[in-house]
């Protein structure tokens, strides 16, 4: 019998933005469109308070556009008028906003695709475990610990997951289980459309925001689904959600990891870089792989891809 080639999965990259983040979302969209290898992937946008003119400007650039909502009522009540927090809830409900896809890839609006290989890694992770996500820092380093005080020569410390579990009043047993867990960073993650993780993650998010902070609870919801429910996860390399200061490849001009052997950065995430997120003209001093100074923005610019993609 002749072999039958399975159909390609329907994949969408999803992000969310308000008026303030709309220019960053435009950068992300442009970076995806710049890679021919990603032509078969749809782009989906959740508006978390965009004005009509901004909506109309972005509408032709994506396949799907939806108005965001507080999918969890308690989160909306606690957020008040801080609608910018809405995306932290929406990212866990992308399947509800855009049904019918086989894979949902969330990328925060302040990140952009430098190398399409990162999308391949996410898709491979979904094939293996239904969920693909990276850590909040490099996995070779120690788990970040906040030293609160010293008593009798002993340091009293708390980790990221411990802090959020306590704030959410999850109970001593759960706090202990999560205390030494390394947090994920769901600024970039992918889920299969039929993954069993969806109800678990959404349920934990609902539980977290009753008493905990919305900021951070979205990451904890995925941590809990994996470490409390035992749901599978494929860990992505740091280059898939690169949060550090990169170098510039002396040969290609592309952004690469700062550490030797300077592998290409797949997705560059501008988390916490408030000034650069607000001003696309702002540049900073970097080094290339030959230790020569280079001055660049970390925002998407087409010329940063030109030599890398040929």
From TrEMBL:
Gene3D superfamilies: Spore Coat Polysaccharide Biosynthesis Protein SpsA, Chain A. InterPro entries: Nucleotide-diphossugar_trans. It comes from Rhodospira trueperi. It comes from the Bacteria. This is Glycosyl transferase family 8.
């Amino acid at each position: 019998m002749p072999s039958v080639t399975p159909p390609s999965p329907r994949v969408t990259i999803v992000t969310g933005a308000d008026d303030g983040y709309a220019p960053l979302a435009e950068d992300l969209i442009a970076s995806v469109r710049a890679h021919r290898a990603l032509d078969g992937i749809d782009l989906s946008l959740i508006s978390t308070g965009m004005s009509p003119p901004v909506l109309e400007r972005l509408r032709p650039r994506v396949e799907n556009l939806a108005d965001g909502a507080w999918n969890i009522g308690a989160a909306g009540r606690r957020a008040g008028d801080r609608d910018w927090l809405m995306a932290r809830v929406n990212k866990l409900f992308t399947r509800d906003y855009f049904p019918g896809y086989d894979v949902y890839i969330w990328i925060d609006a302040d990140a952009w695709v430098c190398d399409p290989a990162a999308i391949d890694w996410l898709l491979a992770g979904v094939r293996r475990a239904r969920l693909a996500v990276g850590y909040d820092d490099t996995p070779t380093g120690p788990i970040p610990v906040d030293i609160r005080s010293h008593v009798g020569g002993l340091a009293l410390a708390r980790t990221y997951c411990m802090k959020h579990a306590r704030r959410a009043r999850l109970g001593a047993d759960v706090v202990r289980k999560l205390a030494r867990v390394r947090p994920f960073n769901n600024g970039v993650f992918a889920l299969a459309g039929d993954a069993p993780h969806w109800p678990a993650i959404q349920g934990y998010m609902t539980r977290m925001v009753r008493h905990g902070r919305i900021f951070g609870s979205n990451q904890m919801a995925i941590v809990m689904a994996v470490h409390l429910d035992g749901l599978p996860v494929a860990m992505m390399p740091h280059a898939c959600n690169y949060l550090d200061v990169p170098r510039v490849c002396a040969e290609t001009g592309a952004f690469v990891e700062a550490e030797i052997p300077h592998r290409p950065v797949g997705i560059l995430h501008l988390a916490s870089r408030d000034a650069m997120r607000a001003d696309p003209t702002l540049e900073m001093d970097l080094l290339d792989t030959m230790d020569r100074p280079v001055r660049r923005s970390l925002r998407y610019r087409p010329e940063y891809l030109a030599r890398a993609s040929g």
